[in-house]
Structures are given as C-alpha cells and as structure tokens.
C-alpha cells in the first residue's frame, strides 16, 4: 500500500514545493543573479529533480569569488553560469503553473472532504461550494457531488501528477545540464587527468624497481663477480678446467650486470632521481659525442612521467646528432610554457633525418604522443635539424 501511494505523494510534494520556490525566485531575483547564489540555487533544484527521477546528479564546483568584472567574465566564458541564470525564469515559468495546478487539485479535494462531512456545522453564510460554484446545502449534494469531486480530482492527481512532476524535473535537468559537446569535453578532461595520475603512479613504480635492482640484485651480482674474480686469480694450472669455468661464469655475470644497467636506465633513468631533470639534461649534453650546450629554464614541479619523456627525447636526439648527423655542435633548450614543457634539440649537421630508418625519432614520437604531446621535426637536406617537443604538464 505504501509503494502504491509513494509515487503520487512524491510527485505532489515536488509540484507543491516548486510553487514557493518559484515565488521566492521572483522575490529574491536581484540576489539570485549573483554567480555563487545562482549556482547554489540551481544545484538545489538539480538535486530535487534528481531525487524525483531517481538518478544521480553530479555536483559542480562553486564559482570563484570576484567583483562585477569577474561576474561578467564568467557570463561570457562559463556555460554553467549562463545556464544558472537561464534557470531562474524557467523555474518561474514552470514552478508557478505546475505548482498552482497541484495546489488547486489538492485544495479542491480537501474542500470536497470538508463539504461532505462538515457542511451541516457551518453557518448559512459560510456554505461551502464545490467546483462549478455548486453550494452544499443538504445531504443529497454532500453525498453525491462532493464524493464525485473527490474521486475525479484524486484520479487526476493519481494519474496526472507524476507525469507533470517528471516533466518539470526533466525541464530542470535539461536546462541545467551541459550539452553533449561539453559532457564530452569534461569526459576527456577526466580521462586526461586520470591517465596522468596513472602515468605518475607507473613512474613511481619504475623508480621503486630501479632502487630495488640497484640496491639488491645488482649489488649481489657485483659481489658475486668480485668473488669469482678472486677465485679465478687464485686457481693454479692444475685446476685449469675449474679456472675456465670460473672465468666463463665471471664474464657471464659481468654481461648480466651490463644488461641489467641498460634495463634500469630504460625503465627510469636513475640520474633523474639523483639530479632532477635539469641536472640530468646537463649531464646528457656534457656527455654528448659533439660539443653540446644545455639551456634549462625555470622548470618548477614536473610530473615524473613528463621528466622521463623529456630525458628520453634529449638522449635520443643527441645520440642521433653524434652518430648520424655529422654535426659539430648541438643545443638543448628546455623551458616551461604555461601548463606545458617545451623541449628543443638543434644541431648543425647534414639534416635529412628520416623517421623510417630507425633513427629513434619514431620512438620519441610514440612516447610524446602517449602524454598528448606534439613532435615537430625540421630537417631539410643540408641541415640544420631541429626536434621540437611540447608535453603538457598539467593534470
């Protein structure tokens, strides 16, 4: 029985609640046009509509404080702010007629109940009247017209109230909800932020693996290699076979350590943790096969994933310069550009770099595009060659 009456009662409460809200909107309109109050008022209506329709309604951040100039700027640039203001007249246009319809229906049901049961106790000048201006002056009218009015209006409220309330709630959410393009934009922003967080977590895990390999596995391999070296030197000619086996084991361990160092540097360069991005790039330039200069700006705080990509870009570009470019000098420029990081490597070599020949440019492009960055390679025949990379640093 409760479930049977729950939906009509919720609908009646929503419609009747919208009437004073609409009146308050008209009365307090000068105050509600302020961005923060319009947002709070609109969000309250969105929550009411969401509760009626049974769907979740995402909360929105409160607008930043500011004066008239900031308010006008938000009206021009923030679609949510414009929707909040648009909802004010829409609330009045829907809340008043829908709420009055629910109030008249409920009021006439109560009037019918009152006329049917208490008409006889009222003085003659206070005779109750039903719809159609029908006076209740005797039991015949009280027991026929009044119950008919109650039944008709109850059926109308039962069947017509929920659709009317849902229509008003849907209008509210339609006006206050972002468009499909804006929802897509926000979804992309969310995915970009979560991907950046995942990349940061991945970089932190790589740093942990690097520390474990460096402090654990690699240290043990070094100790084993030292012991094998000592054993190899101490074995005499009579034990030549054993010495040969020790020599082979010693060499294999040294090769394994070399491969392990390569894996560690590929996973996450330890120098980034030791010196930071600026120091690591300066070390790359100092160790380049041709004279190279590093110009590092004020980088600020950079996500670990972006640091690793920037280091890889410079390392690959300088390797190409030394091995294939026939250059006599190279320059590395790294700086912050708003919410991004700009990396540019230029050399005075022969140019004509071809990405399809395995020069490392394709690897640079893959890593940069994984962070929604951009890569521009300028390498005309005769040079110079410039690799310019932009990587977003924001979440």
Automatic annotation (TrEMBL):
GO molecular function terms noted in the UniProt entry: kinase activity
Keyword set includes Nucleotide-binding: yes
Domain Histidine kinase/HSP90-like ATPase: 305-395
TM region positions: 12-34, 98-122, 134-159
Organism per entry: Streptomyces kebangsaanensis
Major enzyme class: transferase
Pfam families assigned to the protein according to its UniProt record, in alphabetical order: HATPase_c (PF02518), HisKA_3 (PF07730), Sensor (PF13796)
Keywords: ATP-binding, Kinase, Membrane, Nucleotide-binding, Phosphoprotein, Transferase, Transmembrane, Transmembrane helix, Two-component regulatory system
EC code(s) of this entry: 2.7.13.3
Protein name as annotated: histidine kinase
Catalytic activity, as annotated: ATP + protein L-histidine = ADP + protein N-phospho-L-histidine
InterPro entries reported for this sequence: HATPase_C_sf, HATPase_dom, Put_sensor_dom, Sensor_HK_TwoCompSys, Sig_transdc_His_kin_sub3_dim/P
């Amino acid at each position: 029985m409760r479930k049977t009456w729950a939906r009509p009662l919720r609908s009646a409460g929503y419609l009747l609640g919208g009437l004073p809200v609409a009146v308050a909107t008209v009365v307090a309109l000068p105050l509600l046009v302020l961005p923060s109050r319009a947002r709070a008022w609109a969000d309250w209506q969105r929550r009411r509509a969401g509760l009626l329709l049974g769907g979740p309604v995402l909360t929105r951040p409160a607008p930043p404080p500011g004066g008239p100039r900031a308010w006008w700027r938000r009206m021009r640039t923030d679609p949510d702010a414009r929707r909040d203001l648009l909802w004010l007249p829409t609330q009045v246009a829907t809340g008043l007629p829908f709420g009055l319809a629910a109030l008249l229906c409920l009021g006439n049901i109560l009037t019918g109940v009152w006329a049917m049961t208490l008409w006889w106790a009222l003085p003659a000048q206070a005779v109750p009247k039903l719809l159609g201006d029908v006076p209740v002056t005797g039991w015949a009218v009280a027991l026929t017209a009044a119950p008919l009015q109650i039944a008709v209006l109850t059926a109308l409220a039962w069947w017509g109230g929920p659709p009317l309330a849902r229509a008003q709630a849907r209008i509210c959410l339609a006006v206050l909800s972002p468009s499909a393009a804006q929802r897509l934009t926000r979804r992309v922003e969310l995915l970009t932020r979560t991907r950046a967080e995942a990349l940061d977590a991945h970089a932190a895990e790589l740093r942990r693996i690097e520390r474990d390999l460096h402090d654990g596995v690699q240290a043990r391999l070094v100790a084993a290699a030292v012991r094998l070296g000592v054993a190899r030197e101490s074995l005499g000619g009579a034990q030549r076979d054993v010495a040969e086996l020790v020599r082979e084991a010693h060499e294999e361990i040294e090769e394994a350590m070399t491969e392990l160092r390569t894996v560690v540097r590929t996973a996450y360069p330890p120098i980034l943790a030791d010196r930071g991005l600026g120091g690591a790039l300066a070390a790359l330039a100092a160790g380049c096969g041709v004279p190279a200069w590093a110009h590092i700006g004020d980088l600020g705080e950079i996500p670990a994933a972006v640091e690793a990509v920037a280091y890889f870009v410079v390392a690959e570009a300088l390797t190409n310069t030394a091995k294939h470019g026939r250059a006599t000098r190279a320059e590395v420029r790294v700086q912050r550009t708003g919410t991004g990081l700009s990396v540019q490597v230029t050399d005075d070599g022969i140019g004509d770099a071809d990405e399809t020949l395995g020069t490392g440019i394709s690897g640079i492009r893959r890593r940069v595009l994984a962070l929604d960055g951009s890569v521009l390679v300028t390498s005309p025949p005769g040079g110079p060659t410039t690799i310019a990379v932009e990587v977003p640093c924001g979440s």
